[in-house]
Write a structure and sequence with these properties.
The chain has one domain: Immunoglobulin-like (Sandwich). It is 17% helix and 38% strand. It is built from one helix and eight strands; from the N terminus they run αββββββββ. A hairpin with a 2-residue loop joins β1 and β2. Bound molecules: copper (II) ion (CU).
Length: 112
């Protein structure tokens, strides 16, 4: 019985830690695509884009100009944004937009 209670407590503690901490979601850039192209995160979470290509530059630009451009990302380089407001934010690769290299970040307010 003592052991069971201990386990239950551990599970609750884990839960509390996870909901209190911010998450990081990774989005790869390869072969003219963002992968995954659409992510849903909570306010305060971080999205990291990383160039998974071997010899192609990418650049993350948002339709909402309040987000800074990533600038040129060479292979193996990454770019991170912490999203501190809820909303649906669309972005694209400056170089490969015409090839359909577009993505979306949906930020939800988990307090609601
Ligand atoms: Cu690109």
């Amino acid at each position: 019985m003592k052991q069971t209670l201990g386990c239950l407590f551990a599970v609750f503690a884990l839960f509390a830690c996870q909901s209190a901490g911010a998450d990081t979601v990774k989005v790869g850039m390869k072969n003219g695509m963002f992968a995954p192209a659409a992510v849903t995160i909570n306010v305060g979470d971080r999205v990291v884009w990383f160039n998974d290509d071997e010899d192609t530059h990418h650049r993350v630009d948002f339709d909402d100009p309040s987000f800074k451009s990533s600038g040129d990302l060479r292979p193996d380089k990454e770019y991170a944004i912490v999203f501190d407001k809820p909303g649906e934010f669309t972005y694209y690769c400056h170089y490969h937009k015409d090839y359909g290299m577009k993505g979306q970040v949906v930020v939800v307010d988990k307090a609601k």
